[in-house]
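Q: I'm writing up a methods section and want to include an example of the input and output format. Could you take the sequence below and give the corresponding predicted structure tokens, formatted cleanly so I can copy it straight into the document?
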Amino acid sequence: MSKTKASTPVTEDLKEILSHFLIEGSVASVKAYGSGHIHDTYYVQNQSLTLPDYLLQRINHHVFRNVPQLMDNIELVTAHLRKKLAAMPGREPDKEVLTLIPTRQHRSYFEDPAGNFWRLYLLLQGTRSYDLVENTQQAYEGGKAFGLFQALLADMDAHLLHESIPDFHNVEHRLKQFEAALVKDRVGRVKAVQPEIAFVKQRAYEMTALLRLGREGKLPLRITHNDTKFNNVLLDRQDKAQCVIDLDTVMPGFVAYDYGDAIRTTAVTSPEDEENLDRIDIDLGLFRSFTQGFLEETHASLTDAEIASLSPGLTLLPFIMGLRFLTDYIDGDHYYKIHAPDHNLQRARAQFRLVEVLEEKSGLLQSIIQEIYQACQHTDTQKIS
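A: Here is the clean output for your methods example:
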């Protein structure tokens, strides 16, 4: 996302920040943690082995410009998930939902004198995440995790949440940004990307179908995660899904957004910026496994229109990502970090090739979705009878 990040504070400053939160025990050490590009994250080790450790985050308010609204979303969603899980026999809400540690003023975040925003989570011990899916069992667990997340929030009013990043998956908004970049042609690149521009314009209307269905009241607005990468699922020591994390982009949306983005990052055989377009394909085993897990959890709460929307969601999300990469390239590479002069163009071409692959296989993929959905419904019928 944004390239902007504040300078790294020293440990003593971090201990002072932590003093504003209601933590148990006392701090033994604070160390930089993880490889996230948005927030600064620190592992807080407790002096007592019997008391919990924590994760401290400085929220990037250049990306998330209204931190109070962002944290309000997370508070509402985690409270709802916790309540639903607590009513289900055998579930462990403290392990399956992120826990925010309040400040001494009983708020979910602390704003320091320099205008930085901080939050503190309970560390979920014994969990791990993977940047890449290694096998079909992991894909299935990823599907179950995001599916359960959707199902538990299905009865929560999406209008209660704020848009933490306005128009994040709004393809009409992204197309307007694209058209504006074409008009400006700030660095003189439009002439060199005519095939990519034609690709976008050829599909522009078709890609707005889900938005139009939503406006017509045919597709319900849900609470969606909007960043369903596999590494946003924590797995336990047995590689079973335990907790969905990174709730910053949780806001109103369509189920197809989460499903399409998950498949884009779970079942594709090559990196997001693959240079050799011939290598880009969908691993049908991973696709089937993720879809199985996802629909096992969601099929009872989704409408027929939502099931039908999953297939167009497969092409919409890589189209949006390709469109964003292409727009940034035309505009002079201001948004995404690049590692070569044409990196954003390479990314756009890879995402557009993925759209083509998904279009070519749409009939097969749709039949797999329908087959799994019907099997889930049949299983429910057998349980009732």
